[in-house]
Amino acid sequence: MADEIVLLSYWPSMFGMRVRVALAEKGLKYEYREEDLRNKSPLLLMMNPVHKKIPVLIHNGKPISESMIIVEYIDEVWNHKSPLLPTDPYQRAQARFWADYVDKKLFDIGKKIIWSTKGEEETGKKEFIECLKLLEGELGDNPYFGGENFGFVDVSLVTFSCWFHTYESYGNFSIETECPKLVAWTKRCLEKESVSSSLADPHKIHDFASGMRKRLGIE
Amino acid sequence: MEEVKLIGTWPSPFSYRVIWALKLKGIPYEYIEEDLSNKSPMLLQYNPLHKKIPVLVHGGKPICESAVILQYIEDVWPQNPLLPNDPHERAVARFWVQFAENKVPCIWRLFRTTGGEEQEKAKKESMEMLRALEEHGLRDKKFFGGDKIGIADIAFGQVAHWLEMIEDLVGVKLIEAHTFPHLHAWTKNFKQVPIIKENLPDYGEMLMYFKRARDNFLASRGPGM
Prior knowledge:
Chain A is an alpha+beta fold. Chain A is 57% helix and 8% strand.
């Protein structure tokens, strides 16, 4: 019986894009369903009743929620190619630690730059740059966070790169100036079909953010 | 087997997560009590980014963040598994561990309130969190892990033991048998599991410790809040 894979997502979400990258890495066919977050589908509400958020992966009718948990699930089930988590337990723990760091820090700090109504842009920008520098340090001289190969932490972070132009524009700074190695890493990742076909266009993201800011009354 | 050390603090539920996992798998370890008001060079060396406990040190290599440590322990020592075999069930267990990370901290926000709107808000968030556990997490199972405790039960340990202390200090009752029947039963069943029962901080000592911490916090905040 062929696997039935459905992804409920929202096109600007860097969390949804992570799942697309993982599915592409494994060469999997799936049905993509765009959600309108202001009018969530009954399917989304049924499949993720606790958080009611995207992304949700539905595999043969069974839902999995939370983007990096979905990525790990994909990695475990389709372990025939492109392993994302290493096999060594210590390296796995390091990968989980850094993916957790990206999750805990980058999105919330990034929000201060783009969506703040309380004048938090400057502090947001400083904290954001600090986070990226720390991650750049962790990358070191490796081509990827996974070492020689694209891996779990790469998936967790690369999808933020299509939002870089938007952070830069509203924060008035250049990520390439601050973190050249990290930007080189994003370009390297974008050479992979699984990444370039999964990330949204940075200009479309900027237009999206601009529209949201107008609606929130901060543009 | 390489040496295992755990750096923790005795009142911390996060420390206990690691203790329970190690004990359930029968892993011998050295416990090192940390003084968080005067952090040791060892802690700062092993966890330079967050400077927090718990830290597991295995063969001299540190692993930080209790949820990451639990998965590491599971990877290295597969006996008495904390995660199920089925990939979908594993994803569900991990979902609840993440829920514990993101949502259970609201009980500590409640801990820091004295009344008014702030307390009402924290109480409401806590109740919503517990409702999700009751209706979606636990449902009619004995444990989150099914018939035996698993990684999610360990992650929710704070709700079984530390929440009662918070309820006592703040003067609110959140988990009652008629409002959260399954969760209420779970708090009792969880603490009856021999490894858990033998490894819990003394309730009286814990109450005193956290009462002092709460009094200090409220005093430093000043009047009128």
